[in-house]
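Run log // design_07
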């Protein structure tokens, strides 16, 4: 079975919600002042809605969900709303694999955009390593783009 990156169904919302909460709460180790995350990061109804609108994806390793993503496509642009990997699977390459699979799946888009908090040294370094260019920054977020 190996690694698969596919759309998640509503039945996956509870599992992905738990992974999202643990993943974003673990950001206290990389600069967050308290356990927190983006809007809806620990809401089962939010993740269920994202599944129903075909925006929720899951990364599985031999059938086990290890991470997820919320993706929004508009015309020729894909916005990566968020990606998350369960903390027990951090630093195992799953984030890189997920980003590669997202880029493969949406090979026809002309631009991929995303943002991440200014304080998060882990994610800022991660996106830059993957070739995303900083296009702007405000007090809270750094905004990235990859042209294709």
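design_07 sequence
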């Amino acid at each position: 079975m190996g690694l698969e990156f596919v759309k998640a169904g509503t039945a996956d919302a509870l599992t992905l919600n738990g992974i999202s909460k643990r993943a974003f709460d673990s950001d206290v180790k990389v600069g967050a002042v308290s356990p927190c995350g983006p809007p809806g990061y620990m809401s089962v109804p939010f993740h269920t809605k994202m599944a129903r609108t075909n925006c929720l994806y899951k990364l599985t390793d031999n059938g086990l969900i290890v991470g997820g993503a919320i993706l929004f496509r508009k015309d020729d642009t894909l916005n990566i709303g968020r990606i998350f990997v369960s903390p027990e699977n951090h630093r195992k390459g799953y984030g890189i694999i997920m980003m590669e699979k997202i880029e493969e799946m949406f090979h026809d888009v002309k631009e991929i955009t995303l943002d991440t908090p200014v304080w998060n040294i882990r994610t800022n370094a991660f996106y830059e390593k993957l070739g995303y260019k900083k296009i702007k920054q405000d007090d809270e977020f750094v905004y990235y783009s990859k042209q294709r």
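Residues 13-25 form the longest helix (13 residues).
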